[in-house]
Structure prediction request, 164 residues.
Amino acid sequence: MHHNRLCPCSSGNRYAACCEPIIEGAAAASAEALMRSRYSAYVLGHWNYLHTSWHPDTRPSKVSPTSTDWLGLTIIHATENTVEFIAGFRQNGNIMALHETSRFAQVDGHWHYLDGDCDVCEAGRNTPCPCGSGLKTKRCCSNAAFVSTSRHADWQAAIAVKRD
Prediction:
């Protein structure tokens, strides 16, 4: 279904060679790989995977589906067991940025999401768009004229795989 498309995690790799194997049960090689696969799972709606990849000590009873329109992921810094990132999303017509430092721990040789410190705010018009394009928000995802162009469509295709 998504095998030949670019991975939504913004790695630049094909989904089939990036996050898909992890979502389907392969062990993530690092905390960053697990974090990227969890972002892809949010984009693609793999709710069971999100639940099982959560650390047993902090796992909620279930992960509920959302209708969030994810725009892109930017990894800021990663260590052995933490990943700082910004994920852009659209909510009620506003462009939002989730800035989080996630913590991960291994259980039986598999990485799991433990918890994170996060801040969610509306993206400023003159700040870099949280989709990762490098453009200012006012010239990117909050600009209806730009969003309707093929340039923006090409960018979005490169950073997000949507359900067929």
Observations:
- Residues 158-164 have pLDDT under 50 and may be disordered.
- The radius of gyration is 15 Å.
